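pinning this so it doesn't scroll away 📌
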Amino acid sequence: MRWPLALVPILAFAAAPAAAQCLLCAPGAAAGAAPRIGPTAETPLRVEIETQLDMGRVAVGAAGGEVEIDPVSGARRLRGALFDLGGFALSGVVSVRGEPGAAVRVVLPAVVDLESDSGRAARVTGLVTDLPPAPRLGPDGRLRFRFGGRLQVAGLDDGDYRGRIPVTVEYQ
């Protein structure tokens, strides 16, 4: 029995531009009124992808399957007709800098479609982070977090799948 090879690193993740609230557009902002001083007025957010999410290498059987990367441990779990061919599986790591102590909101998409060089597609779902429910930048204005997710591969789809996962970070 022959198994098609699916190389599934998910590379080239990009951070979406950090969002900030418009101080002059806020409800109740009067012309000539002094803008509210706060984290959005003083320090713009900077988002950097330190490590790209990589699902490693697997062989795919006719029924397909799923590769899951845990954001905390970086452990890889295979489900369905997938077989481990090694390689490094890595959770993604994001670094955020901004106003010390500020509350932030991190948004990851629900679904990301990936493509191989041959035009075949795979889907990443269930993106999660290791962040607490109400993340804040530390006293040094930094926050570092990991993210992982699930890659769904259909049977007989082989290739090197790549895509971008936008990571949006904004002040609360």
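📌 and the second one:
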Amino acid sequence: MAKERLGLKNTLGLSPKVEVRKSEIDVEHTEKAVKEIHSTKEETKRVTVDMPTDLFKAMKIKILGEQTARDYILNLVRNDLNKY
């Protein structure tokens, strides 16, 4: 009754059901894309190094905006190995 008085009779009901379109997943295409994204050109080995916080902060300040910590450390190792 209050709905009719306020003119809300047709506005407070449930909305009509809408059919959800189901998508098909191309598994082969997805796996290929994942391999391309996560593949590297060379085989890698993960190395973990515990570093004092002050040394880590100094390194991050030095390389800020230039390169990642990973790239910085790889360059240091490559340069050290090329000395000999």
